[in-house]
Automatic annotation (TrEMBL):
The chain crosses the membrane at residues 40-59, 79-99, 120-139, 145-163, 191-212, 224-250. It comes from the Bacteria. The lineage of its organism: Bacteria, Bacillati, Actinomycetota, Actinomycetes, Micromonosporales. This is Uncharacterized protein. Keywords: Membrane, Transmembrane, Transmembrane helix.
Length: 280
């Protein structure tokens, strides 16, 4: 009888892309990278489109302030500070909107099956929670250190819509709860992950500036080259941060709610499927 139970329990996939155990910050970042690799086409393509649309908003705004990426880091004047706050809100919006693709990769890693195609209701919920998440991120950035609370406040909402099949209000409550439970560990992981990619992007930007000095390009060509490279760097960062959110939601449920034990028990009675991860 024990042998039968053990055999049934092994039906639960043990995919090393997303181990069902408490993870360190480094392991969560590695897991996010693996999830991006597995859904690279969908995640990076969507991230690139959204990053391009972001620049379509920010480029005219920067030019109205006579600020160009190719000129180097700008001073924190009043107008530029507002631009930074708007950029922070757009980044939060994009990361949340990438949640369904990242959440799908996480579901497949845990259950071995891709989630069903999202319905219009889920798409509307994702759009709504993204807009809601962008507001405290932008407002927090405008106020300075308040961003540390505003950015992680609703960040896990879209992955909750996808993984746990929640509606917008339920997903927002769930995101806040997971972000601030356990000594605010979820919020801290999101903030540290963001700053990690911010440093990578800034170093890349400085490298591009150094490279431009070696290229005899007109000012207009140099600026558009910088914009294109920034879009590429942002796309990779946004996809990775969305994947971090998906991994963090699963890991938080393992750490705080015993998801791994529940899934192992459930797998003894039926084949693993995405429904196992739905809200219960």
């Amino acid at each position: 009888m024990e042998r039968a139970a053990s055999s049934a329990a092994r039906r639960l996939p043990r995919d090393e892309a997303l181990p069902l155990r408490p993870l360190t910050l480094g392991e969560l970042l590695d897991t996010a990278s693996e999830l991006v690799r597995r859904r690279a086409v969908v995640l990076l393509a969507a991230a690139a489109v959204l990053a391009l649309l972001e620049q379509a908003v920010l480029v005219p705004w920067r030019l109205s302030l006579d600020i160009r990426l190719s000129d180097g880091p700008a001073g924190l004047s009043g107008g530029y500070w507002l631009l930074l706050a708007a950029g922070a809100g757009l980044e939060a919006l994009i990361i949340v909107w990438l949640g369904p693709a990242a959440g799908g990769a996480a579901v497949e890693a845990v259950t071995g099956k891709a989630p069903p195609r999202a319905r219009m209701r889920a798409g509307v919920a994702t759009a709504l929670v993204g807009v809601v998440a962008a507001v405290p991120a932008a407002l927090g950035a405008f106020l300075g250190p308040v961003w540390l609370l505003g950015y992680p406040l609703f960040g896990l909402a879209a992955v909750a819509v996808t993984i746990e099949r929640r509606g917008p209000l339920g997903a927002l409550r769930r995101a806040t709860g997971l972000a601030f439970r356990g000594g605010m560990r979820g919020a801290a992981v999101r903030v540290v992950g963001y700053f990690s990619w911010l440093l990578i992007r800034f170093a890349f930007y400085l490298g591009l500036l150094a490279g431009l000095e070696l290229l005899p390009l007109p000012d207009v060509a140099a600026e558009w080259l910088m914009v294109g490279m920034v879009v590429a760097a942002n796309a990779l960062a946004y996809a990775s941060l969305a994947a971090l959110d998906a991994a963090l939601l699963i890991e938080s449920r393992v750490r705080l709610e015993g998801l791994d034990l529940w899934l192992t028990g459930a797998a003894r009675h039926r084949e693993p499927d995405p429904e196992m991860l739905a809200a219960r």
